[in-house]
Design brief:
Distance between the termini: 62 Å
Number of strands: 13
Radius of gyration: 34 Å
Oligomer: single chain
Structural class: alpha/beta
Shape: elongated
Strand content: 15-25%
Mean pLDDT: 88
Number of helices: 11
């Protein structure tokens, strides 16, 4: 009889050992975060398990259900009210089809910790430092007088021709700096081009109209045009009323600009800045009036309308390039050139990655991949 108990106990021990090997459960701090997550991982190879329940406690006594993962899941990230430095206790329950527990709940505990650095972002840090170094160096070089080559854009060549044509016809020039405020970089790029255009207008002694829809843009554009007349040596020819406010309303502003185009019939229209649904309305009205039209925007959805209705269009980054080219501001020239070098580096890295992947070498892809 005693030997029978020993044999049964032996088989139970073997069974438990095998079951323990089949089921595992572990918890640990979620790496590379601010201490707001704990990763739970489990694994099992028991086909009788039909559902899983996970509970959590901070005192190892009172447990509360936090999730019921799918039977196919093997991992759960707990971010529900997790605070760094607190011990969290987890129980995982494996249930059969009748809701009965197959084995006793498995207990595990961990605490989270905030990390100073996200190691998954190291490639991004390397690229940022590299690009920043290049841009700072080029800006410094531009400030010291080094000539940075920027390809001339055909639309810029038309500025002088458009001003000359307006002078010959005795008609004004219309400049629209978009509908966004001064915090939009496209508006700033457009205003930089306005400074160059207004200087040409002053030199040719013609007229320019600059309707705006933002108060900050109004005061800035007025000062830019005034300074341009001063640089041209004709400060007395500056007309403060050439830069004027219409309305903040989008389509009210468009209606006002269209009215100017129809009444004044400018010889050249410039649309340089941020535009939305009004782009085609403006460009089409200008086209019907027979004016030379030069547009530029970084709004991808509006570029096709300008390309269809205008004579020249500065596409996307060309707007910023034109601004840097005309203004000759070292910060703009250096950053523009630095971004070009950044694109070359990215293209080179893509090419290297493709070559390595073709030869089944994956360390480069694994390094630059960011979670």
């Amino acid at each position: 009889m005693k030997s029978s108990y020993i044999i049964i106990l032996f088989f139970l021990l073997i069974y438990n050992c095998l079951l323990a090997q089949e089921i595992s459960f572990s918890v640990q701090d979620n790496p590379n975060d601010d201490g707001s997550g704990i990763v739970l991982q489990w694994n099992f190879d028991n086909k009788d398990i039909s559902s899983i329940i996970i509970k959590r406690s901070t005192d190892n006594i009172h447990f509360k259900k936090i999730t019921k993962p799918l039977i196919s899941d093997r991992k759960h990230l707990d971010q529900d009210g997790i605070s760094p430095g607190i011990d969290y206790y987890y129980q995982i329950h494996f249930l059969d089809r009748n809701g009965e527990e197959i084995i006793p709940p498995i207990l595990a505990s961990a605490s989270s910790k905030a990390q100073w650095f996200n190691k998954d972002k190291i490639p991004l840090l390397v690229m940022t430092l590299l690009l920043t170094t290049i841009i700072v160096y080029l800006i410094s070089s531009a400030k010291k007088g080094k000539r940075l080559f920027i390809r001339r854009i055909s639309g810029l060549d038309m500025i002088e021709e458009a001003v000359g044509r307006a002078t010959e016809l005795g008609k004004p020039i219309l400049f629209v700096p978009g509908i966004m405020d001064l915090d939009n970089i496209q508006t700033l790029a457009g205003l930089n081009i306005l400074g160059h255009l207004a200087q040409k207008v002053a030199q040719y002694d013609t007229t320019i109209h600059v309707p705006v829809c933002r108060s900050m843009v109004l005061s800035t554009a007025k000062e830019i045009v005034k300074e341009s007349y001063l640089r041209a040596g004709r400060p007395d020819a500056f007309n403060p009323d050439s830069v004027f406010y219409l309305t903040d309303d989008q389509f009210g502003y468009v209606a006002g600009v269209d009215g100017i185009i129809v009444r004044e019939k400018p010889a050249a229209n410039f649309y340089l800045g941020a535009f939305y649904a009004e782009s085609l309305i403006l460009a089409e009205t200008g086209f019907e009036s027979g004016a030379i039209q030069i547009a530029g925007t970084a709004m991808p959805s509006q570029i096709p309308f300008f390309v269809a209705a205008c004579d020249y269009t500065l596409i996307g980054e060309e707007l910023y390039a034109a601004s840097a080219y005309l203004s000759k501001i070292p910060a703009q020239l250096g950053s523009l050139k630095g971004q070009d070098y950044g694109k070359v580096i990215v293209i080179f890295l893509i090419f290297i990655g493709i070559i390595l992947e073709i030869f089944n070498i994956h360390f480069f892809k694994d390094f630059i991949s960011m979670k």
